[in-house]
Amino acid sequence: MLVAVNGLKVTGQQLDDGRDALQVLQDEANYPINLKFARPRLTTNEKIFQASMFYPLYALACQLSPEPRSSGIEVLEADNFRMNCFQTLTGVKFMVISDPKQSGVDALLHRVYELYADFALKNPFYSLEMPIRCELFDEHLKTALEQAERQGFSNV
């Protein structure tokens, strides 16, 4: 997927300055030209689908492991993504889908677990097995993700 032409971001087929990317490519006067390509980002539905496919594999790995009380799959790596899973002692799983080359995912997962313990588990209105609906957790999670992105972590 074409993401930039001569440093200008491409959205659909249009450059940030309003010109059509294909017309810029066809015009020989624009050469030499610098093109930047990237894989398309996963949609939210695609990420949810991948996470839902991960759970049965995780359970199967736990059952097939020769190691008693195995923690199952911790990392599932493909050519264009890596899914890391961190399971807490209470069985709650946190997953991050990232670029395969991305580093620092384990630290991010541990930070998310700390936030979960501080803001969800200590909230008297939170029930286990229910979605986390805690404004403080959401705010701190957003801050942690922004901080991770500034430090070079992307595609969370």
How do the strands and helices of this protein lay out in sequence?
Layout: E1 2-5, E2 8-11, E3 14-15, H1 21-26, E4 35-37, H2 44-64, E5 75-77, E6 82-87, E7 93-98, H3 105-120, H4 135-150
Antiparallel strand pairs: 1-2, 1-4, 2-3, 5-6, 6-7
The largest beta-sheet arranges its strands as 3-2-1-4
Low-confidence stretches: none
Provide the helix percentage: 25-40%
Distance between the termini: 20 Å
CATH topology of the largest domain: Beta-Lactamase
The CATH architecture of the largest domain: 2-Layer Sandwich
Strand content: 15-25%
Total domain units: 2
The residue-averaged pLDDT reads 85
Query: What is the CATH class designation of the largest domain?
Result: Alpha Beta
Please give a structural write-up.
This is Trafficking protein particle complex subunit. The longest helix has 21 residues, at 44-64. The protein is of the alpha+beta class and 156 residues long. The mean pLDDT is 85. It has two domains: 2-37, no CATH class; 44-150, Beta-Lactamase, CATH 3.30.450. Helix content is 38%, strand content 18%. The protein starts with a strand and ends in a 6-residue tail after the last helix. A hairpin with a 5-residue loop joins strand 6 (82-87) and strand 7 (93-98). The chain has helices at 21-26, 44-64, 105-120, 135-150, and strands at 2-5, 8-11, 14-15, 35-37, 75-77, 82-87, 93-98.
Please sum up the structure shown:
The protein is α+β, with helices and mostly antiparallel strands and 156 residues long. The chain is built from 4 helices and 7 strands. The strands form 2 sheets. It has a 4-stranded antiparallel β-sheet, with no helix packed on it.
